[in-house]
Amino acid sequence: MENLVQAYNTTRAHTQNLCKPLQIEDYTPQSAAFASPPKWHLAHTTWFFEELILKKHVTNYKVFDPSYGFLFNSYYNSLGDRIQRGHRGLITRPSVDEIYKYREHIDREMNVLLKNLPSHEVLALTTLGINHEQQHQELLITDLKFTFSHNPTYPKYKDTNYTCKAPKTNEWLECTEGVFTVGHTTDDFCYDNELGAHRVFLEPFKIAKDLVTNGEFIAFIEDNAYKNPKYWLDNGWQWLQNNQISHPLYWKSINGKWHQYTLSGLQPVDLEAIVTHISYYEASAYAFWAGYRLPTEFEWEIAAAQLDWGMAWEWTNSAYLPYPNFKIAEGPLGEYNGKFMNNLMVLRGASKATAANHSRHTYRNFFSPESQWQFSGIRLAK
Question: Where is the Sulfatase-modifying factor enzyme-like domain (predicted)?
């Protein structure tokens, strides 16, 4: 119990620490429907504990503010109406100060509850809430970066910019054919989309030990691959044309040299660093251009123990689908993962912006194939 209380308080404090470099003006703007403001992340992660735990498990609990259920619900249809996703940046009131008071209120209530021998259900929900908040910590960073990138002054968030590089080996890990078990099999926490461990047969394959670098990706650009439909899925080609995409997100050519916006400001592209903010369409096209392919999520999982991962989320060639015997949970928690199992692709691993100890080799992240704003990169297979 003591460990869970500590994990709760540590996680909640870390979210607020991520906001310490912000000016008050940074908390509210929303640059796209998919990029929520920091203030909304602070409130939504708090609403999660109030809505799913305190309201149901504390006798005579008094809701902090009845309007917050509408303002800070994300996508839980079973919990009532909510503000449109693209309107989150219009919530200028309540103030940032009020949201921090909201967090203090919920933290007090949660600490009292957790220290008074709560039920197994409360413990399980608290663990889920901690992991939910860790997800939003990474989203807070990536959403903030997207918003800051639209500021022509290219503001600096802090020295840490979540880019990274590793020694380049150009080596491949060779994996033999066989029947393998994939999915979560231990008693540790996992999301329901990892459950349903099952066997898969894999043909022999090789998977790159390195992720694709900026320098390697520039060769793709300079070969006019963004202008050659040969390398692109049809939907990807349409996405390029409709959005005039010709380089990774945050890249900009200045006097013939590539620069990129980072959370430390605008900087020259480091050719040896790992390329990030790549969509599935770009990852797939690059793999085709290079003469390889993307790994499936099952290939990635089987190889993960022998790979160095955690530097960028890695696109796989697998659609986000339920595992055998997947069951949607009763109540609002059933909306957490299952209802998104269409038109999305799976990413594996973690990024430098992922919360510590949040990922694992069975973790299934998922985004739409055109998504670029996450720290997503490319690992090749053949």
Answer: 170-305
